[in-house]
Structures are given as C-alpha cells and as structure tokens.
Automatic annotation (TrEMBL):
SMART domains: DUF3402, N1221
Compositionally biased spans, kind Acidic residues: 355-369
Annotated function: Plays a role in the regulation of cell morphology and cytoskeletal organization. Required in the cortical actin filament dynamics and cell shape. Part of the striatin-interacting phosphatase and kinase (STRIPAK) complexes. STRIPAK complexes have critical roles in protein (de)phosphorylation and are regulators of multiple signaling pathways including Hippo, MAPK, nuclear receptor and cytoskeleton remodeling. Different types of STRIPAK complexes are involved in a variety of biological processes such as cell growth, differentiation, apoptosis, metabolism and immune regulation.
The organism of origin for this protein: Electrophorus electricus (Electric eel)
Sorted UniProt keywords: Cytoplasm, Phosphoprotein
Name of the protein: Striatin interacting protein 1
Keyword flag Protease: no
Alphabetical list of InterPro entries matching this protein: Far11/STRP, Far11/STRP_C, Far11/STRP_N
Family, per entry: Belongs to the STRIP family.
Top-level taxon of the source organism: Eukaryota
Region (Disordered): 1-43, 345-395
GO CC annotation, single: cytosol
Keyword Cytoplasm in record: yes
Amino acid sequence: MDVGGNGGGVTVNNKQKVMLPGKSRGEFARNQRKDSEGLSEAPDLEFEYGDSDKWAAELSELYSYTEGPEFHLNRKCFEEDFQTHVSDKRWVDLDAMQHRAHAMRLLDGLDVTGRERRLKLARAILYMAQGTFGDCSSEAEVQHWMRYNVFLLLEVGAFSALVELLNMEIENSAACSSAVRKPAISLADSTDLRVLLNIMYLMVEMIQQDDLADPPEWRATRETFKTELGSPLYNSEPVSVMLFGMVTKFCSGHAPHFPMKKVLLLLWKTILFTLGGFEQLQSLKVCKREELGLPRLPEDSIRVVRNMRAASPPASASDLIEQQQRRARREHKALIKQENLDAFNEKDPYKADDSREDEEENDDNDNSLETEPFPLERDEVMPPPIPHPSSERVSFPKGLPWAPKVREKDIENFLECSRSKFIGYTLGNDTDTVVGLPRPIHESIKTLKQHKYVSIAEVQIAKEEEYQKTPLSGGEEDVEMCATELLYQGILPSLPQYMIALLKILLAAAPTSKAKTDSINILADVLPEEMPTTVLQSMKLGVDVNRHKEIIVKAISAILLLLLKHFKLNHIYQFEYMAQHLVFANCIPLILKFFNQNIMSYITAKNSISVLDFPYCVLHELPELTAESLEAGDNNQFCWRNLFSCINLLRILNKLTKWKHSRTMMLVVFKSAPILKRALKVKQAMMQLYVLKLLKVQTKYLGRQWRKSNMKTMSAIYQKVRHRLNDDWAYGNDLDARPWDFQAEECALRASIERFNNRRYDKNQSNPEFLPVDNCLQSVLGQRVELPEDFQMNYDLWLEREVFSKPICWEDLLQ
C-alpha cells in the first residue's frame, strides 16, 4: 500500500493487472482487495491497554542492543570491589546487615573526586539495581533481587546522591562543549549520564510497582519516596522539572550528547509514579466529583472500553463497487410479487442470495461475530423481515455502550430556539420556564435534564469567574498542594519551551519524518563508536535504531497524555494552557503526519531481537544471530509499544480538539478524514473508538457526498461513540458549520488562562487598581527620593531652565 500526503491511494502490482484465465471478475476483485488491504481480514488484536507494558518489556526497552557488552562490565566492576571486602561469599549468601554495610560503602565511594573511580562504583551500584544477575538462574530470581536491592539502595540514601551527581553531569560544561564540537556523537560520549539514568530508572520502575507481598516497611518507604519525588526536595524542584530541563537543553543544541531515550523514559515513569496512572485518575475523578457535590459518573469508562469489540475496517474502493452491484440486484429482487414476499422473508436478511455473494460477505468480514450490522449492508426497498426465533441467528448486544450526556449550554440553546420559534421571545439563561411551549417540547426538556452532565471543568470555570469578579470579597483560594499542582508550578515558567522540545523529538522519531540537516540527532545513545562493517551488524543496528525511535515515541506520547489528563482534573485552565501551547507548536498536524503511513505495518513491526533483551541476555548463552533470524523477528501478533503509542496520540488529538471549533476545523483543513479512516483498519476496539470520535466531530463539515459514501463509518460512530442528545453531528445544518473568527476563540481562551495564571501564581504582579494609595500631603512630601547622579550634577542648570526662567502666574496657581 502506498500512502501519499494527499489522502493516498492503493498501488497495485503490475502482475495483478492481467486477469488469469478461469477467474471471474468478482474473484479477481476479491484477490486484488486482499493484496491491497492485506490485513483487513486480520483477527481482533488481543491488546489490553494499561499504564505500561509487562515488567520484562519495560526493563528491556531501557537498554539499546548496542549497550549489550556493558552488562558484563557492570558485573566485573561490582565483583572486583565486592571481593576486596567479602572474598569467600556471593551477594545472595550475605545477611541483611552485610548487604546494608556494602551498599553504604559503595555509596560513600561516589564522593571521590576521581572520575574513573566514581564511574566504576556507579557501575557496581547499577549491577546491584540490575538484580546481581550473575548469582541468579531465572527471571523470577532476577526480579526478586532487583526489588530487594532497589529498596536497600533507597534506604541508604542512594537516590538523592544520584540526583546530585546527575545535576553535576548536566552542568558539566566541558562535556557539553566537547560534544558540540564533535562531528559524530556516539554511545561513549554519554557513559556517565547513562549509568546514572539507568540506576534512577530501575529504582523508580521497581518501586512504583505495587506488590501485595511487600513487607509493611517497604510500603511505607514507597509512599515516602513517592511524596519526595513529586516535591521540590531535590535541588529545590521536583525531579520531573530537572528532567524537562535536560530535554530543552538537548533540543537547544547545547548538550547533544544527552541520552534522550533514557531521560524521556525516566521522566515518563516519574510522572506516572508521582501523579498516578489511568486507574488512579478514574478514582481521583470520582472523589473530586463527590467533593464538588456533583452526581456520580454514569459509567466506568475504562471498563466500557475494555468490553468493546472492534468493528470491521471501512470498505475500500473495490468494496464499494461490489456493494453498488449488490444493491442493484437487491432493488431488482424487491420487485418480486407480493405473495412471494413471505417465503422470501424466511431467509436471513443479513445474508446474500447466492453462493458467490456468500463468499463476498465472508471476504468482507461484514457478517462476522465481532461486528454489528451496518445500515448500508441492508439498504433495501422492502418491508422489514418478520422475526423468527432461531438459535443460529447472530445475537447483537442490546443498547449502546455509553449513557448519553447533555450540557447545560445545550439545554439553554434548545429552549432559546423553541421560545423564539413558538412564542417569539427569549429569556436568556432561564432553563425552567416552559410557559407557552407545546407539550412535546416539555417532554424533550424533561429528557434532556434527565441526562444533564455537569463536568468538573464547568464548576472550576464558574469558580474562577467568581474570583475574577470579586477579588477582594472572594477571599483567598484554598489550593491543595498535591503532586500535580507542585509539578505545574515547577514547569509553568518554561512550559512553552518544554512542549516545543517534546514535539521536536517526537517529529525526529516519527517514522514518516525525512532526515533533514536541521533536525536534532536523537541517536546519540544508540550509535556505537565504530560503525558496523558486516551486513549482519548493519541489520542489527538498523533494528536497534528503529526500536530506539519507537520507544521515544511511546515515552513522549505517554508523558503528554498523562500531563493533559492530570492537569485537566487539577484545574481546567492548567490543561488549557498546556493544550494551547501544544496547538501553537503544531501538535495537530504532527500527529496527523505520524498517522499518514501504513499504520498496520507500524503496529505489526518486528523491531526487536528477543534473545538480546534484558534479562534474557544475561541469563542464557546467546545463540548465533543470522540475517534470517533478524528478519523473522518475534512471533507476536502486534508490537505492544507501537499500538500503545498510536492510542495515546489519538487520545491527545481528542483532548486538544474536544469542544474547540477552531481546532476541529484544523482537522478538516489538514484533510485528516482519509488518514483517520485508514487507521480504522487496525482491529482494536479502543483505537477505533478514538478514531471514530475524531471523525464524528468533523463529519458535518465533510459534505453530504462523504457521508453518503461512508455510511459504514457513520454507523460505527453511532454504535460506539457517546451520544449528545441534540448534537447534529451527522448533518451540516448546525450553527457551528458557519465560518467563525477562529482567532477570536483562541484569543479569548488565552486571555482567560493568563488571568488565571496571574491571579494564582504571579504574586509580585498585583493589580495596581487594588493597591493602597497614600493621600496624605505631608507623608508624600516627606518621602526621601533618590535622584540620579547626572541630575544632581546638573541641578543648577535645571533650576535655571525649569523654574527661574519661567514666569509664574500666582493668581492661577492659588485658584
């Protein structure tokens, strides 16, 4: 499949153009469709969305395959130091006191001034954090000792020492200037940084996993560490802010040797641990609604999405031609005599009338159990069939997955339209007076009010408006200093730069990006000192580079989504500030550019070599790698990280465009509909849901012809996306379909955000209208005024020119 920037098309191999003898046209079209779509008949992807992948996968992604030899170097550094103090025992044979004593000895050694000695001790500590794998025989043992050693290191104060060392390396101007001058940066330039970031990542990753078997003291340590990590205790700022600083320094070109993949992974895990994942977000949302006195959520969105099934992908051009032929035959069939209709209705209406069409239906996968029937497939000019109970008939789920919602604003608009239509007057924001309106309108209003949903954001906006109206009588706002609030305060001064830096790296890591001279080099921590000389080494490095980019996309997408969701829950204007800067930094076209590729190929990419993954590679003898084994890859149906990244990016796009008319129009202007429609080929329910949401918001602007030729997609939207009761999403007769001044909408939002940030965070810049004024003449004249030196030197000249040489009219002055 060859996807172009303008919506793309399917290129067919020249060999397929010659029709083989004995093949019917329909059979040829089916084969052509199979070749062009390839994976459209693929089964549902057994993917469970979560905060992160499995334990082993998350650990292995920290290391590039080029770093493989360093595992044994770490072990060597540890054993050399260990044997000088404990000669006749292994690490696993020591008791807790001896473990603690050795850990403290290693930590004290980090204070030495010699760089080589410090690096060796840091490698020994890294070997401990990696689970002292030399004494282990299975992954379960490695995991056990990793957890034990990490809690031991945290207990003796290793993390704060590592933060200080990392800060020292960040400020190391000699290393930065050396890296800037180098024409090609390799793995060797970031050795010290990589060792420190590896230890910190392993500590955060192991401690953030809640294990029921943990002793009570570990649980207490975990909670304390979580609080400290999100507080400005380390270097008077949260660790996340320090890592954001590393990202911007890297993107500015002042530190091209920073190992960006490890920085981003540590940043993601730190945010995930300190703020909480998606399950914690859901419970926080429930608690916050209770605090504000709002009704409970109609359903648990995580559970609803997990129970959804994927729909078949939308039809291709060849499908549409066949459907038109079938419809023509069905219209002909509708002219059957009336007495034969009953007999005809005995047939299953969801099946076609001959064996050839049965094959076509199976090929299209339209009557499979995973999907619900679409109106286009049964668009017949016939009365509906008489239902007959049959055990063989497909049973479709009753009802829609989501409870419908209505905003207060929607009820107001509906009432205003009804009043002006039936009575000829309006009442503003009144949603209770229904005098003079017809009975059906009363029923409609009752139904709308039953499904009214008040969001946390609406309450927060109303409160903010109160604070702005009554700055003196409103009193001081009680701001809860949670981890999200502390992080927002930390990144607020430089948030625009942080967003631009993240998007720059995302652009460089996207598979659709072309290599440009001005783009940043994100491969500093994957390229070896000596470039490969054999074909096998080149293939291995190619897999490593592609994997490296995929992991970076995964980390950035997760960071952005977590921040957007947590900021939105904490305060809507914090979310809007971040979202607006993402939009200003061209996040919307960037994500669309990312999806403008063969997305099925991206999701099924096999850029991993399982025998080189940690901890497998340190526990087993490595088999000899061949070009065939590298090409074959693993046996997984899909790549977890790539599907996770795609869903995250779609969710970010939804967050940025929801209820924002100007941004929805950006989706239309950038021709996102064909790009998103191609993403529906991935048979995963959650991914399809977010694609359908994005298509729903722009459907009314795509024209009648688009809706007519995409009825299958329209049906999928109706079945899977939440309904807004009076939202005319499927038609173009809504007020929002008219052109508006989009800039005004963004400017009004920006003004509201600035007022919020100034009121809550800018304590120095108080409103001059509310400052006290000194009206006493004596105190004003008695104030000592510091005059500038040049004025004092020329004071006589000033007196002569401004006072003595000018006549004074005393009468006017006294009046």
